[in-house]
UniProtKB/TrEMBL annotation:
Domain Lon N-terminal: 1-198
SMART domains: LON
UniProt protein name: Peptidase S16
InterPro entries with a match to the protein in the record: Lon_prtase_N, Lon_prtase_N_sf, PUA-like_sf
Taxonomy, superkingdom: Bacteria
């Protein structure tokens, strides 16, 4: 699978727009578009542990990433591409080939995305939904603005990824949630996080939440 290192963490079900300008990644997109229309057009987005998105030096990557499925591609007059992608499946990188193509090619293994302890995951859903609604209301009150939440999914994995996208701006923390073994583990971590954030809101007068400012309208 073609790998695309980024300074962000893609989560399953979340939209990711991209502007492609580096020649190696233009070639990646071109290779995807050359595939038959009924072939899966996807590449792996992997967060950078150390290094930069651009430049000749290969960055150090996290081991777990998420496939980005190409939904729309527009080639611009200067050769750049404007893409809309959506996260689909988590994977772990087994090995990386940096020689055969201008961009990285990874041998990957897909990760299961189950609930884990199903009973616990289902029980956590209304608790986390309630905490997210309370947190959003408190944050809106503190910042004197309106924050609209989308309809919150009842499916544990979908909810866990939405919370991670909406409330966790820190890349390292979001990467930990992506790597969580199952939805129950992820929701437990988010429940504790939301409780901490709510406690903090009672002690500060101004607050910023970049994640909620960019909360996704829906999960796919």
């Amino acid at each position: 699978m073609a790998l695309f290192p980024l300074g962000t963490v893609l989560l399953p079900g979340l939209l990711l727009p991209l502007q492609i300008f580096e020649p190696r990644y233009r070639e990646l997109v071109g290779d995807l578009l050359d595939l038959p229309e009924d072939s899966p057009r996807a590449f792996g987005v992997v967060a950078i542990r150390h290094g930069r998105e651009v430049g000749p030096q290969r960055p150090e990557l996290h081991d777990v990433g998420c496939t980005a499925v190409l939904r729309r591609a527009q080639r611009l007059p200067d050769g750049r591409y404007s893409l809309m992608t959506v996260g689909e499946r988590r994977f772990t990188i087994r090995s990386v080939d940096a020689e055969s193509r201008p961009y990285l090619i990874g041998e990957v293994a897909y990760l299961a995305d189950g609930a884990g302890d199903t009973e616990a995951a289902v029980a956590l859903v209304p608790a986390v939904q309630g905490l997210l609604r309370e947190y959003t209301a408190r944050l809106a009150e503190k910042k004197a603005l309106e924050i609209r939440l989308p309809d919150l999914p009842d499916e544990p994995a979908a909810l866990s990824y939405l919370v991670a996208a909406a409330v966790v701006p820190d890349i390292a923390h979001r990467q930990e949630l992506l790597e969580a073994p199952d939805a129950a583990s992820r929701l437990r971590a988010e429940q504790a996080m939301l409780r901490r954030e709510l406690a903090l809101l009672t002690t500060i007068t101004t607050v910023s939440s970049p994640g909620l400012a960019r909360i996704p309208p829906s999960l796919n």
